Amino acid sequence: MKKNILIVISAAVLFSMVSCSHKKETAASLVPEDYSGWTITADNLNYPIPGHENHFRRVLINPKGQEVSVIKKEGKDYYAYPKGTIVIKEIYPTLNPKEGTKPVSLTVMIKDPENPQSRDGWIWVVKDLKKNTEKIIDYEFCYDCHTNANEPHQYGDGNPDGEFRDYLFFPYRKTASGNRQQSSDNRSY
Ligand code: HEC
Fold first, then answer.
1. 46-51: long-range contacts (C-beta < 8 A, 24 or more apart)?
2. Closest residue (by CA) to atom 15 of ligand 1?
3. What does each of the 189 residues of the chain score in pLDDT, given as a tens digit?
4. Distance between Cα 10 and ligand 1 center (Å)
5. Residue ranges around ligand 1 (CB below 6 Å)
6. Which atom of ligand 1 is nearest the CA belonging to 149?
7. What domains does the chain contain, in order, with CATH numbers?
């Protein structure tokens, strides 16, 4: 219950809040320009979600993140991504972009616990691909909602056992097919 309320409330304010905030945008330097060879952890996210508005989305993880450790803690799986993990979520201009369309922005999680701007071990970044600027969101907003990923929720497999997934809704799995969102068509991006 708590999570649903949280997601709905945050939804209304997400990107308006990010874009209206007075936090500084800086020249892009944190998010690698070429991530084309990374592993896709969620594809064909073509349903609207609160918080990321009505945009087609795709999620990729860098090779470092694939060294994730999963241990049992108090009977539950506990995920820990190593420092240097980068997870990129591409945001496309519409919910049903034509083949070949490029994303307009990226929302990114970078594991860097010692960084003073990190929250819960991650730096939370929004990259504007047109302006080539990045903004670190170091107030509650992003990580607050992503806390829901560590409890049962309504996305992907839903995390029914409430595993600690290190704030990722779509955790990296060695068997990638187990994690891919079912595709309703054959578009490729
Ligand atoms: C209201 C809830 C909410 C807020 C706020 C939110 N997200 Fe997300 N985020 C999600 C959901 C749900 C997903 C699952 C993928 C999807 O359906 O798009 C997700 C996925 C992601 C992913 C892919 C990794 C994963 O969890 O599988 C990244 C990276 C990400 N978000 C970054 C951010 C950043 C950066 C911010 C802040 C600017 C942010 N998110 C704010 C709900 C939220």
1. 46/95, 46/96, 46/184, 47/95, 48/95, 49/11, 49/155, 50/7, 50/8, 50/10, 50/11, 50/12, 50/14, 51/7, 51/10, 51/11, 51/14, 51/145
2. 169
3. 344 434 443 443 444 445 444 457 888 799 999 999 999 999 989 988 876 668 999 999 999 999 999 999 988 999 999 999 999 999 999 999 999 999 999 999 999 999 999 999 999 999 999 999 999 999 999 999 999 999 999 999 999 999 999 999 999 987 644 443 333 333 333
4. 11
5. 7, 10-11, 14, 18, 42, 45, 49-52, 57, 59, 87, 89, 107-109, 124-126, 137, 141-142, 145-146, 149, 155, 168-170
6. 26
7. 2-178 (3.50.70)
